[in-house]
Design a protein that fits this description.
Rossmann fold; 8 helices; 49% helix; alpha/beta; globular; 5 strands
């Protein structure tokens, strides 16, 4: 897409999906192929979140008390960095759960408006995956951050697998990473995103 100045509009790709769906892998590949800045919520804010968690006496990143104390600030941080990059004419790839933004059209509209005002073309990419595949991947990766989730009584049954309620590109998380990024890039660079986008698999 060309801007009024005749140069290609920067991409502002928001990658979301359930835990274990491959968000970070897809986002890194997309950033590399687009020459974009990669803004990973965990990488950017994990150390400060850990400090707050210690102060609150919480060791579960999904704890509602910790989330309530840090969620807004964490997302504000990566959004502000995205805006700075977009104003410089750089594409950005943001990766995080973006739960509110994918559930609430008003929240998505607010984020998209900020990214667009900074010079980006916002697109939400949703990694679709089954509950069984999520559980298998989380157990196999053995990450420390997953231990509290696996220890809870409901385990992984509380993971939100519902597709976003906002316009998005659906991507099959079970595809091989290179094939997946090819398919997503074809959609990103090929036209408008509709609510009823078919799977890119």
């Amino acid at each position: 897409m060309e801007t009024n100045e005749g140069r290609r509009q920067s991409q502002a790709v928001v990658v979301t999906g359930p835990p274990g769906s491959g968000k970070s892998t897809l986002a890194a590949l997309l950033a590399g192929r687009l020459g974009a800045a990669l803004l990973d919520l965990d990488t950017a804010t994990a150390d400060l979140t850990a400090v707050v968690a210690t102060l609150l006496g919480v060791n579960d990143l999904d704890d509602p008390v910790l989330a309530g104390a840090t969620r807004a600030a964490r997302y504000a941080a990566i959004t502000a960095v995205a805006e700075e990059n977009l104003r410089l004419g750089l594409s950005v790839v943001l990766v995080a759960p973006f739960t509110s933004e994918r559930r609430d059209p008003t929240a998505w509209a607010a984020l998209a408006a900020r990214l667009e005002a900074a010079g980006g073309r916002p697109t939400l990419v949703w990694l679709e995956i089954s509950a069984a595949a999520v559980e298998d991947r989380i157990r196999r990766r053995g990450a420390g951050r997953d231990a509290p989730r696996l220890a809870r009584e409901d385990g992984l049954t509380g993971v939100d697998l519902a597709a976003p309620r906002v316009p998005h590109v659906r991507a099959d998380a079970m595809q091989q990473p290179e094939a997946l990024v090819d398919a997503v890039l074809a959609r990103l660079l090929g036209g408008p995103v509709r609510q009823d986008v078919p799977s890119v698999s």
